[in-house]
Amino acid sequence: MASTSTLVGPKPVSAARILTSSGFGLLFDSFDVGLLSYVLVSLSKDWHLSTTVTGLIGSVSSIGMAVGSAFAGSLADKFGRRNIFLFTLLIYSIATGLSAFAAGIGIFCVLRFFVGLGLGGELPVATTYVLESSPEKVRGRRVVFLEMFWAFGSLVAALVSFFVIPHSGWRVVFLLGAIPALYTIVLRFALPETPKYARLEQRPSMGTALRQVWKKGIARRSVVTWILWFVRHPLHT
């Protein structure tokens, strides 16, 4: 990993700060995705859920993920990469924490939709943040290092589920999933806006941004990118 600094905003920001700050966002996302697959085993026993209902829970999360990823890019063009990164991280961490207090399958599914909403929005925005904050010659390398945090998050989810669920139950692990809400306070001061966004003289509206993604000559690439992204970051059930 290159140790050179990148000019982000008025001050140079080290590559390590860019990667670790953004990477922990991906780690928390991966942690939540992996967590659900372990929690559903315990949850289905406690609430006597059928396989159809457990599949529905995963589907609701996927729908939220699709909606989040569809609109996060346009919002990031309008309000900034850092702001949407923090906002989506906050949404999914709060929804995850509230899931610990769900009394029934209905409210649990609603909360899982919001978890997916934040998750689907945060992942592409975090990658965009690293890309736009990195010199061209090291962008690919930094994105690879960024994706490593996803693997670490899956490992953390497995360890937490193995040691916590048998002794404290699934609600406790969802409370642990709310920790990223506190992490947004750190990111608020650690991450400035990307140079590319800071140089924009005019912020495009959401409608303009969506039309640009689906205009002739770009729509096919958008569809392929969406498919590849969902294949790489599935929600396990």
Automatic annotation (TrEMBL):
Predominant cellular place of this UniProt entry's protein: membrane
The keyword Membrane is assigned to this record: yes
Positions of transmembrane segments: 47-72, 84-107, 113-131, 143-165, 171-191
Alphabetized UniProt keyword annotations: Membrane, Transmembrane, Transmembrane helix, Transport
Keyword Protein biosynthesis assigned: no
Gene3D superfamilies (alphabetical): MFS general substrate transporter like domains
InterPro entries in the cross-refs: MFS_dom (IPR020846), MFS_sugar_transport-like (IPR005828), MFS_trans_sf (IPR036259), Sugar_transporter_CS (IPR005829)
Membrane topology (UniProt): Multi-pass membrane protein
UniProt-annotated location(s): Cell membrane
Domain Major facilitator superfamily (MFS) profile, residue spans: 18-237
Protein name: MFS transporter
